[in-house]
Description:
Layout: H1 4-15, E1 20-25, E2 29-33, E3 39-41, E4 46-49, E5 53-61, E6 71-76, E7 89-94, E8 97-101, E9 108-110, E10 119-127, E11 139-142, E12 145-151, H2 153-172, H3 177-190, H4 201-221, E13 229-235, H5 246-266, E14 272-274, H6 277-286, H7 288-300, E15 303-305, H8 320-338, E16 346-347, H9 358-364, E17 369-372, E18 387-391, E19 397-402, H10 427-436, E20 445-450, H11 461-470, E21 478-481, H12 484-490
Parallel strand pairs: 13-14, 13-20, 13-21, 14-15, 16-17, 17-19
Antiparallel strand pairs: 1-12, 2-3, 2-5, 4-11, 5-10, 6-9, 6-12, 7-8, 7-10, 18-19
Amino acid sequence: MFLREEKLARRIAELEPYRYRESRSIGPWAFLQQGQAERTVELGDGWWGRDAYATLKATVAVDAAWQGRTLVGRFDFGRSGGSNTSGFESLLLVDGAAYQAVDSYHSEVWLPEDAAGRALVLEFRLWSGLEGGGRPRVQHYQFRRAELAWLDPVADDLYFTARAVSETATALGPNQATAVKLWTLLDRGLRPIDWRTPGSSDFYQSLAAARETLESGLIAMGKPETGVMITAVGHSHIDVAWLWRLAHTREKATRSFTTALRLMETHPDYVFFQSQPQLYAYVKADYPELYARIRQRVAEGRWEADGAAWLEPEVNLSSGESLVRQIMHGTQFFGREFGQDGASVLWLPDAFGFSAALPQILRQAGIDAFVTLKMSWNQYNPMPHDTFRWRGIDGSEVLAHFLTTPPASQWNWDDRWLASCNDEITAGAILGTWRRYKDKAVNQELLVAFGYGDGGGGPNREMVEMIRRFDRMPGLPRVRMGRVDAYVDRL
């Protein structure tokens, strides 16, 4: 016998695959790995390597009857390792043009709107990845899924809304009255689903009834204002030099940037922030047509290129002159390439410690804000504030703000350290951002940077969909997409 929460979790998981209608497998594929002869592969076949490159290519005819629907590809080429610092990565080209990253975190691809009724050439440029540190080893994978389908909007909406309700109730905890009401609403909302003939027309009609029940219940509950606001920005933190070579960094930037552009095409409210001119320079040299699209999005205000430094540097060992040059070359690049007047913030989420000379250097560069999170990686003598004026050696001051979003798996209220800018968006992470914040009395608006970094491809559609729904959930702060520079101005 299931407890109610476990039963509802099972129901949501069972609903997930029914979002995709009339799925059709793709294959066989032409597979060519470096140093090997070309071979034909199908689902179930394996591939392997360490720092190995391969191409996977097929031409697929898209059904003309799918005209007017949201067409998606679904791909699963395996996973190894326990984080986004290991495991395979790939760049999908559609008809020869760079289109989107496909990896362990990005298995869904929205196809071009005009794809129905024509043939598409799908080519994956695969990289086996490295082991993410430690002893070198070969990575082994399997081609588990490659299919086309169309997305059912009712089932998709019901799935994400039900997940948002479940996650919010879990995050609030069993003693919160709002959580009890949400569990009751979710139980009643999923009850109309007719599971006797899953996949039938009657089944999908029952999903519409379930969505209506859930929606009307949420409207009736409303969202009492807490006065707390979360500004969420898509982000893909990329260490330019860490567990891989610079050639890999160039490829990681390309994969992450194509994915960001795809989300902007499919979700008009999506905003993406990316620092480090070095990454832009790589993409400009390797994929000039992709770089032109980035510049267009920057001009529109939906892609935010900021952060001041040429790359996110080590700040303790570097000399003063080196730091000055980092900021000078970084801000000049943003001005030359994107027409920006300087930078609004020094963005250093992942540096371990900071020179006391930074406030003076920043003020002389016309920058008066600084954002990081790594000071939270300190279990025993934490900083007493998250938002404050940082005074440097010469008396210069800048506004400093620490991101407080816990990793998705560690949002527990009793675990108040270890923040992240490189993770999922969950109700627990949203709630934990506010709960962990130390300066609630002076500020009630916080910043969340979300997305898988270091080759994880940045945010995915799931994150964007969940943000929209978390904004509606009673008991959670308001959550809206926004820009870092606008947030810093308000702060």
